[in-house]
Write a structure and sequence with these properties.
heterodimer, A: alpha+beta, Alpha-Beta Plaits, two-stranded antiparallel sheet, 2 helices, 4 strands, B: alpha+beta, 2 domains, seven-stranded mixed β-sheet, two-stranded antiparallel ribbon, 9 helices, 17% strand, globular, binds iron/sulfur cluster
Amino acid sequence: MVRMMWEDAFSEIPRSIPRIVWSMDRCPTPMACKKCLEICPQAVFMLITVKNQKFVETDVNEPGAYAMHPLFRDKCVGCLDCVRACPAGAINIAFEGEGD
Amino acid sequence: MCQYCMTHGHGQVWYKNALNYARQMYKLRKREGAGDPRQKELDPESQAGLILAQAVEAKTADPQRYPELKKMANRLVMQTSVGQVVTLQEAMDIVDLASPIALMSCVCRKMTRGKVEDDERSYTCMGLGIGMFKWDRWPERYKGGVEFVTPDQARDWLRKWNKKGMMHSIMTHGTPYIGGICNCDYPDCLAIRYRLDYGINQLIKGHWVAKVDYEKCNGCGVCVSRCQFGAVKKEVTTGKTNIDMMRCFGCGLCETGCKRQAVTMVERTTLPGMRGVW
Ligand code: SF4
Ligand code: SF4
Ligand code: SF4
Ligand code: SF4
């Protein structure tokens, strides 16, 4: 329930953020799939419109027109739902002290 | 009245003043140094985006730098794009202040959940004012087009989303110029998210605050599910709803959902302890 600007008990100590790597090579058209956006309980991902052109609506099937950015990765709990949902194996998540 | 009313209200609540709706959105402005390839000055929106991302990361990974980045992010969002919560009634009054009124897709929901709103039934965002005449320049932003509506249609549309549980806020495009009204929820709305999760003030609390009448409340819990800010919960001890008025953003969703009229929206400035809480 507590969604207010919260502080971790030990927030003065830096906590490492998971490394979330998204591969555009494996996922050239994220807007045509967006499974990771929909499934993440923490809404970690943010879709970025790379191609934003005057007078032209971007084609969701055009490679490279959109990119996925794990902007809110400090909120990632490591459930790996996104990794399992991804049909392309495009998401790689590693927590500190763990191998890939 | 809040700080924005003092600086931009001209004696009124700032979003009730039609002057603040007058400028064209996306007006082409020549920036200093534009055209000079040596000067790669970012536009304020992109600059704000970069600083926001840095502040988000620093909150966890670099707590030492976080306060400073947060301050910078606050300054930038307040200049470029900042929202304030309004009640359903206020939103319904605002649609009389500017025209045209255009319903359109929400850009946050698209970015955070990949939600494409591409017809008039799904649109959750509203553009207000003459800037909307230029919507077709940026079809990607207004994906699916826009639906121009009358003030009465706009009020029906606001009621519809309120019923579903979305709160309303005004949003500036180059403060103090108000570009429209959003219907928002957590975590899809980036402004709510930046404010609640990262302490970045892209959303300012509204002029009202919710107060429960314990005589009338029967603890049914409807209001709990309608608060997007985590301000409402059931207090088991009393069997009634408890609203933390300090956490309340004043959207009035709990009030419009309550069948027993147990919630009253109180004007923030009438409570000495709430005057400075925005
Ligand atoms: S691991 Fe879970 S919380 Fe983290 S990004 Fe993936 S779905 Fe979201
Ligand atoms: S689930 Fe995988 S393929 Fe689908 S959008 Fe996300 S990263 Fe791309
Ligand atoms: S909806 Fe009304 S009656 Fe029900 S718990 Fe909330 S305030 Fe009480
Ligand atoms: S307590 Fe009520 S008025 Fe306040 S933010 Fe929550 S739903 Fe809105």
